[in-house]
Specification:
Blueprint lengths: L12 E7 L5 H14 L14 E7 L2 E15 L2 E13 L8 H16 L4 E6 L4 H6 L3 E3 L3 E5 L2 E4 L3 E6 L10 E2 L6
Parallel strand pairs: 4-5, 7-10
Antiparallel strand pairs: 1-2, 2-3, 3-4, 3-10, 5-9, 6-9, 7-8
Length: about 180
């Protein structure tokens, strides 16, 4: 679960799963500032969707890692597929490298597959993050994601990764996220 010497913090970890809309305003503002700092300069000009669910990882009561889940029906190869979209995976800089994002991701995967009952999880990432997500069971798919933006449909140049929740094979064909990316 946690790496090396950080295993001693395992007993002080707590995890919350909450509808994002119910998070207190100060928590939403804190997460927004944090995401802006961590992802500053990336994807300039792209409008992003907010999450439906938030996975909050705390150590000794401090929010240190976060994962969003979007519950959405998308189109893949012309057919409807219900996804748990993973976004805003981030750990505070001072807590990185301790396995906390992995804990958040495992929690998110279990929640979207078991509680939400989606067909697949889907995330968008940069190439340098592929090894991290592969260790958690995610696989790269070859098709890019098409998303809605204020000016119309655009193709994102992110890596698309999926994980099966229902032991199904990912369908082939074009991926339309049918809304803003997450």
């Amino acid at each position: 679960m946690l790496r090396g010497a950080d295993s001693e913090i395992a007993q002080s970890i707590s995890i919350e799963i909450q509808p994002t809309r119910t998070l207190p305003e100060e928590v939403q503002n804190h997460i927004g500032e944090w995401m802006h700092r961590i992802f500053a300069g990336m994807d300039v000009g792209i409008e992003w969707a907010g999450g439906d669910w938030s996975i909050l990882v705390h150590v000794n009561g401090e929010l240190v890692s976060h994962v969003n889940i979007v519950d959405r029906v998308v189109r893949v190869g012309g057919r409807d597929v219900r996804l748990g979209g993973i976004g805003n995976v981030a750990t505070l800089e001072t807590w990185q490298g301790r396995g906390l994002a992995s804990i958040g991701m495992r929690t998110a995967q279990a929640f979207m597959c078991d509680e939400l009952g989606v067909d697949f999880g889907l995330l968008l990432c940069e190439e340098d993050l592929i090894p991290f997500y592969r260790r958690l069971g995610w696989q790269v798919v070859s098709e890019p994601a098409v998303v809605d933006q204020p000016g119309g449909k655009v193709t994102l140049h992110h890596i698309v990764m999926v994980i099966s929740c229902q032991q199904s094979e990912w369908p082939s064909g074009a991926i339309d996220l049918c809304g803003l990316p997450w």
